[in-house]
Specification:
With about 230 residues, the chain is mostly helical. The chain contains seven helices and no strands. The chain is about 75% helix and about 0% strand.
């Protein structure tokens, strides 16, 4: 994550707020005061735009989506191997038990590291989302939106995730209502959960963009508590 500090409170981004006494000398005229405020706000908006650009590129990186889907596939393969392994072990004969133990070990080798990788990625996403929200809520400037908005990356996350979530949810419902196996139900739930993760990520980003395009309320918003 970026080592830069979190954004200042909303009051420092307010064009009507007084400039920092330590950063600017006391102005002699009202025109100097306005120029100082404009320069201060311009610097803060430039820093905000750069931070949002970097955070958006990391948060919505396509490689993160590909890694999530790869990890999901490995977890699914592990679940299938575990299901088959238990069936072989239940058979009772020596050869079947040996094959079942091998499949269970393979399942653990596939599923455990992949699940840990997904958990680590989710933790990093939470941190990135908090920083992204903090910087986005520190001001509103639709003129700089084009410099950090990434509609292609957002759609890359949203559309496949929507398909996975819908397909997985429908499959889980059909399997639960019928006589489907635990293998099918587990795979369906896994797909639905993966799709839900991607959708939450994309929808949260679209909410930030929508806020940027919405005119600021007449009454100042309370300062956002930064993480």
């Amino acid at each position: 994550m970026s080592a830069r500090p979190l954004p200042p409170s909303d009051a420092h981004m307010d064009p009507d707020a007084a400039p920092d006494a330590d950063a600017h000398a006391v102005p002699d005229t009202a025109a100097d005061a306005d120029a100082a405020r404009d320069a201060d706000r311009a610097d803060l908006l430039a820093e905000r735009t750069e931070e949002l650009r970097e955070l958006t590129a990391r948060y919505l990186a396509r490689r993160r989506a590909l890694l999530l889907w790869l990890a999901t596939g490995l977890v699914a393969a592990g679940w299938a191997a575990a299901w088959a392994g238990w069936r072989y072990v239940a058979a009772g004969d020596v050869v079947s038990v040996a094959l079942g133990v091998f499949l269970l070990a393979l399942a653990a080798g596939l599923a455990v590291p992949s699940a840990l990788a997904v958990a680590s990625g989710a933790r990093d996403d939470l941190e990135a989302r908090e920083r992204l929200r903090a910087w986005a809520r520190s001001a509103r400037d639709r003129d700089t939106l084009a410099r950090w908005h990434s509609p292609g990356r957002a759609l890359f996350w949203l559309l496949p995730s929507l398909v996975l979530c819908c397909f997985g949810s429908a499959s889980a419902a059909v399997t639960a209502a019928g006589d489907g196996s635990a293998l099918t139900l587990g795979l369906a739930v896994l797909l639905a959960g993966t799709g839900a993760l991607g959708m939450v990520k994309a929808v949260g980003y679209y909410r930030l963009v929508s806020r940027e395009l919405t005119p600021a309320p007449e009454v100042d918003e309370p300062p956002h508590e930064l993480p």
